[in-house]
Specification:
The protein is mainly alpha-helical. The protein has three domains: 2-54; 61-144, DNA polymerase, domain 1 (Orthogonal Bundle); 173-346, Intergrase catalytic core (hpI Integrase, Chain A, Orthogonal Bundle), CATH 1.10.443.10. Helix content is 46%, strand content 11%. It is built from 16 helices and eight strands. The strands form three sheets. Strands 1-2-3 form a three-stranded antiparallel β-sheet, with helices on one face. A three-stranded antiparallel β-sheet has the order 4-5-8. A two-stranded antiparallel sheet has the order 6-7. Helix 6 packs antiparallel against helix 7 (190-197). It is elongated and about 95 Å long. The N and C termini lie far apart (99 Å).
């Protein structure tokens, strides 16, 4: 690095500070005063080089699409569903706006305006927040790659206006029976399996006959999922959500159902196979049982298949199951997560517990009429 004095065409003196890296000039700035040029060179550039904080500004002049190509390659270690989501967000929402823009020139206000436009164009706040998360990860990669020093999306607030979190629906035992009866065909009893086991659809679809366990009790060993791609709906086998296998216990009334679907099959056959073989997709199952009509018949037109998982949580908590037990059944990362999602269901038991406690303490016992016992008490015995 060096500072050079020169005179402009109109006779003014200027000082140019140059930064060289590996023998090549990678940055320079012009100052009116020599002391300013030296300060920039010594205090900013040399200090950053000593601390390992200096970066080549040329690396930030490339288009964001160049960085995105490397980033998407680096994301190949993610689950296939996550890869598909990030690729979709990049192609549909980020690339059209920022693909040709130099990565170093993207500002916080650019990102905030982009998020606002997503909502204005009809995207839900939750979707816009999810897309912002993808943009943050992309720019974080650019920081790690030495393209930029600051992630312009890191402090942009996700939209919240008008966003109402969707509450899961819960069926009682009668409604489960009514829904199963309203569904048509031999696949109708899967309603009961989902509602009493707490399986995600992808986990149920990924079950093989050999995943059944009988020790220490009847259960299903979950080891894989079957997912549908976002674009073509193509089914593919993937790992579980948290990549850890778990065993789900079977309540007694599910055992005959599993027996029936296992009969005559080999261990590596799909437990709930499609009519023409292979795993069963959620979309095909819903068409087969006429799901849309069935949920209308029971007065739950907005019910989702995933709400059967919520139903399982409500039934187990209502039966007094410990949150740690429910966490293992549902496959959550922690009991705290389970309580964050379903803790409000315990509120239904608060007053019953209060009544039981009152009975234990004797507070609910009727008061005795004044009589001989009360007179005896007054003697101070």
């Amino acid at each position: 690095m060096s500072v050079q004095r020169y005179t402009t065409a109109d006779g003014k003196v200027r000082y140019r500070a140059r930064v060289k890296h590996h023998g090549r000039e990678v940055a320079n700035r012009v100052f009116d005063r020599k002391r300013d040029a030296e300060a920039w060179e010594e205090e900013e550039q040399k200090r950053k080089l000593r601390l390992g904080e200096w970066h080549d500004p040329r690396r930030g002049r490339v288009a964001l699409s160049v960085v995105a190509a490397d980033w998407l390659d680096a994301r190949q270690t993610l689950k296939r569903k996550s890869q598909a989501l990030e690729l979709m967000v990049w192609k549909r929402h980020i690339e059209p706006k920022f693909g040709k823009v130099p990565v170093a020139s993207i500002t916080k206000s650019d990102v905030a305006t982009w998020v606002g436009r997503l909502v204005a164009d009809g995207r839900s706040p939750s979707s816009a927040a999810r897309y912002l998360g993808v943009f943050r990860r992309l720019l974080a990669f650019a920081v790690e790659d030495g393209r930029i020093t600051v992630n312009a999306a890191a402090t942009v607030k996700p939209p919240t206006a008008g966003h109402v979190k969707r509450e899961g629906q819960f069926l009682n035992r009668k409604e489960i029976h009514d829904l199963e009866a309203a569904c048509s065909g031999r696949y109708a009893e899967i309603v009961r399996v989902l509602a009493l086991s707490g399986l995600r659809w992808s986990e149920l679809a990924g079950l093989r006959v050999g995943d059944r366990v009988r020790v220490p009790g009847q259960g299903l060993r979950l080891q894989r999922t079957v997912m549908a791609s976002s674009d073509k709906g193509e089914l593919f086998v993937d790992t579980l959500k948290n990549k850890r296998s778990r065993t789900v216990p079977l309540v007694d009334e599910l055992v005959p159902i599993i027996d029936k679907w296992s009969e005559g099959k080999k261990g590596d056959d799909w437990l709930f196979d499609a009519p023409k073989g292979g795993p069963l997709s959620e979309a095909n199952w819903k068409r087969s049982v006429d799901w849309a009509e069935a949920i209308k018949k029971i007065g739950r037109p907005a019910l989702r298949v995933h709400d059967l998982r919520h139903t399982c949580a409500s039934l187990w908590l209502g039966a007094g199951a410990d949150p740690k037990v429910l966490q293992r059944i549902l496959g959550h990362a922690s009991a705290a997560m389970t309580m964050d999602l379903y803790g409000h269901l315990i509120d239904d038991n608060l007053w019953d517990s209060a009544k039981r406690l009152g009975g234990i303490l004797g507070a609910s016992e009727p008061e005795e009429e004044p009589g001989e016992d009360e007179d005896d008490d007054e003697t101070g015995s």
